[in-house]
Amino acid sequence: MVNTMLRGTTAVVGVSDTPWYKRGTSGEPALKLVLRAIVSAAEDAGVDPSEIDGFVSYGSERNDGQRMMPALGTKELRFGALVWTHGGGIPGALGLAATAIVTGQANVVVVYRAMSEYRGRRLRVDVAQDDTSPQHLVNGLDSPAQLCALRSMRLIEAEGVPARTLRDMALASYHHARRNPRAIGRDTELDAETYEESRWVSEPYHLFDCSRENDAGSAVILVSAERAKDLKQKPAYLLGAPMGAASGWGMREESGNPYWSAGFQGVADRLWADTGYGPGDVDVAQIYENMTGMGVSALIEHGFCTPEGAGEFVTFDNLIAPNGGLPINTSGGNLAEGFIHGMSLVGEAVRQIRGTSTNQVPDANLSLMTGGPGDPVVSTALFASAAAL
Amino acid sequence: MEYEFHAHRITGGIGADDRFWESLEEGEFRLPRCADCKQWMWPAHFRCGHCGSWEQLWEPVEMSGRIYSWTRAHYAFDRTKERAEDVPYVVVVAELPGADGARVVGALAGPDSGVRCGVEVRGHIDPPSAKSKGYPAVRWSVVD
Ligand SMILES: [Zn+2]
């Protein structure tokens, strides 16, 4: 049954990313980067930064609202929260922001993330939040790349999904980055041969299967659907943003089921139930790909294809704008635009509804953004234009 | 034998698995099972979600199973730098029929040419070392 309290009752009205910096080179701490992103997102929306009264983030974000109030001139902080766990929490953060708005707890809520190695830790260590289990570290498993590699290896060898689907995910992202002047990977001409010849990181992942690490800040601003009509931009209405984990999932180290899952069992079903739409209705998708193979799992779990049909669906031609069946990661995504723990995918999902992407899908009315795959708890969001409300 | 891993404790994860590591230090491979409903529970936890019991039995399990998944690491990441000299190295997730399909991680020992999902493996226990961060470690080898 459609969730009438949350479906289309709020909208993203402002988006902004700072420039992307190679990790450690921004010369600014994360707090300053996120302030820049928030002020610029407020300008984009046409609201004064001092009006922002709600602050929501996820993962290891430590730049809380109370720390930013003096710099934003915040009139009153009315709502603040951090959503579990890692990048899986991004759409859930949007959902929590929307909940705060529709229940009257806050009026202008910013959802944001910033990371910087300037005065900060190595980003990939920061993102892991010191929560890697002994069973992993003792046996030589540290990076998300390795943990995701285990899942994708199972997807390939036991579920029969062709390894070529990983390559085509990467090729689609790098293809889109070529047209995005902000993308850090815009000058990389990735073809099948360059991909295959690139070094292994953790099999089945090559270098180009893995997301980047960048210093940057990223923010989006939500208000009620009613308020959104009076602001500067075409609203991107939030139709739904469920979070969760099915009974075989949660924190189970290597014993979760199905093992190849990105975590969206049940969660994706609830997205379609909450919004009244299905995978066949989606015009464009930003699929959080910490690693390409997890993006393939996310596509399968959202019902775009079955494991058996993945080879046919996940092809370069089908994944690129403007004419693919499901253009994905149209900014270049975490692989080729830049990585701030997945947050910039929200901005790109919104730009597709506005019609301002550098790889615009014509008449994009339904825009999907899936959260960090493989997280013990994940979330997923669907945006709509007024025409699809 | 004095427990070594307590001095090197890794704090991530659930943190209910002390008995697993203590057993390995004693040279025994044991996995937890609910004392009441006998459900295997791995990774270890504090309460059985099936019946509500707070008691676990740590039972010896045969170190024999099949590769459920694996990866060959071509890079020693930040917190596993101790393995830099082993790169590339294979890590195996083994599924153990002796514990209702519990999946236990271990670095591969011996040749890695036959590594593939479904292949039979046998395990042994390595004593604590710097490479395994002061913990004892399960190792899996492909059965010819
Ligand atoms: Zn029980």
* Spatial separation of the terminal alpha carbons of chain A: 15 Å
Give the C-level CATH assignment of the largest domain in chain B: Mainly Beta
Parts with pLDDT < 50 across at least 5 consecutive residues of chain A: none
Domain count of chain B:
2
The CATH class of chain A is identified as Alpha Beta
- Which structural category fits the helices and strands of chain A? alpha+beta
Number of helices of chain A: 15
Would you tell me which CATH topology of chain A applies? Peroxisomal Thiolase, Chain A, domain 1
Domain unit count of chain A: 1
3D structure, described in words:
The complex is a heterodimer of chains A (about 400) and B (about 140). By secondary structure, chain A is of the alpha+beta class. Chain A has one domain (about 10-120, about 215-389): Peroxisomal Thiolase, Chain A, domain 1, CATH 3.40.47. Helices cover about 35% and strands about 15% of the residues of chain A. In chain A, a hairpin with a 2-residue loop joins β6 (about 200) and β7. Chain A is globular and about 55 Å long. Chain B is mainly beta and about 140 residues long. Chain B is about 5% helix and about 35% strand. Chain B is built from 1 helix and 7 strands. Chain B has one helix at about 20-25; strands spanning about 30-35, 55-60, 65-75, 90-95, 100-110, 120-125, 135-140. In chain B, the strands form 2 sheets. Chain B has a 5-stranded mixed barrel. Classes of the chains: A alpha+beta (about 400), B mainly beta (about 140). The interface of A and B includes residues 137, 146, 204, 254 and 259 of A. The complex binds zinc ion. Chain B: InterPro entries: ChsH2_C (IPR002878), ChsH2_Znr (IPR022002), NA-bd_OB-fold (IPR012340), Thioester_dehydratase-like (IPR052513). Chain B: It comes from Pseudonocardia halophobica. Chain B: It holds the Pfam family zf-ChsH2. Chain B: This is DNA-binding protein.
